[in-house]
Every structure is written in structure tokens, then in C-alpha cells.
Amino acid sequence: MKILFVCLGNICRSPTAEVVLRTIAAREAPELDLEVDSAGTAAYHVGEPPDPRTREAGARRGYDLAAPRARIVEPADFERFDLILAMDREIHRVLQRRAPRAAHPRLRLFLEFAAEAGLEDVPDPYYGGPNGFEEVLDLVEAATRGLLEHLRERCRAA
Ligand code: 4NP
Questions:
Q1: How far is residue 153's CA from residue 1's CA, in Å, rounded to a whole number?
Q2: C-alpha angle 90/46/41, rounded to 5°?
């Protein structure tokens, strides 16, 4: 299974989700053999590592966010990934406009997998305070658990 997370700049929310899913899946669900990546819809930060505030907040919970480099979503992504998970509804709308119709069933909102959070959007932490980065991690960790459950079920049904 190949999973792509998408946010706006690819330096805060989606690289966090990429690393959290990869880390937890390696520990708890290696049988799923996941390939995980992230990308942004905007080019402002292409080539940059995650925002320092993202890296610091992740490190406090044991996630190493040094490796990812921001890139933009490209047409081949819509063919390559089994699930393309948008970090908020605006990103989901942008992806629907850019993706061919055949890929639309694979475009989902990440927080669908964290129903208990009662939110649809992972709030963009870029212009907010430090608490925003903690909230991103809380939501990403919750949705990662739900996503892994969903993937295990898919695997069993296949
Ligand atoms: P992200 O956060 O979409 O979670 O990576 C943002 C990063 C950069 C900007 C906006 C949001 N920006 O406007 O540069």
C-alpha cells in the first residue's frame, strides 16, 4: 500500500503525518508494508526541510522529522498512490480539481480516520502559536491509529 499525505506547504502537517505513520507502522504493523510520502499543493517551500517548530514538536514525541524535503503534488502521484489523504477540506478540493476522475475515490480527508476528534480539518499551524504544533501531533496520532485499523481491515478483506 502506498499512502500520500497532502497539505499546503509540505513543511508542517503532511510531513508530520508521513513520519508519524511510518514510525508507528514500522513498530506495530510491519505486515502492511506501507510506503508513505507527503507533498504540498503550493510551491512556496519546495526543497526545504520541515519547519523548525514542526521538527522540535515531533522530536519531543520521538519522531525524527529531519529527512523530508518539501515537494509539490504532481500528476504521477494520482496514479501511484492507493490513498491520497488531504489534511483539510480546502486541500481536498484542490486535489479534486487537479486529479483525474478515476483517482477521486482515492482522495480522502485524513481526519475521517479520527472520527472521535469531531473535526474535518487539521488546523494549519504555520501562522499560529506553539500549541498549534501540539494539536497537529494529537490529531495526526489519532488519525494514524484509525487509518492503521482501516488498512488492517482492507488487508484482511483482500
Ligand atoms: P503546511 O503549513 O501546509 O502544514 O505545511 C504551511 C506552511 C507554509 C505556509 C502555509 C502553511 N505558507 O504560507 O508559507
A1: 13
A2: 15
pLDDT above 90: residue 130: no
Name the catalytic one among 7, 22, 37, 77.
Answer: 7
Ligand 1 neighbour 11 (Cβ under 6 A): yes
Alpha-carbon distance of 7 to 18, in angstroms, equals 11
Is 77 among the catalytic positions? Answer: no
Instruction: Give the pLDDT mean for 38-65.
Output: 98
124 in catalytic set: yes
Q: Which residue out of 5, 11, 38 has the highest number of ligand 1 atoms within 8 Å of its CB and is therefore the one to mutate?
A: 11
- The predicted model scores a pTM of 0.98
Residue numbers of the domain that contains 63: 2-157
- pLDDT the model gives residue 89: 98
CA 44, CA 40: separation in Å to the nearest integer? 9
| Burial label, 116 (beta-carbon count in 10 A; 0-12, 13-18, 19+) | exposed
Tell me if residue 155 is catalytic. Answer: no
The arithmetic mean of pLDDT across residues 8-26, rounded, is 98
- The number of folded domains in the chain is 1
Q: In the 8-state DSSP scheme, what is residue 72?
A: B
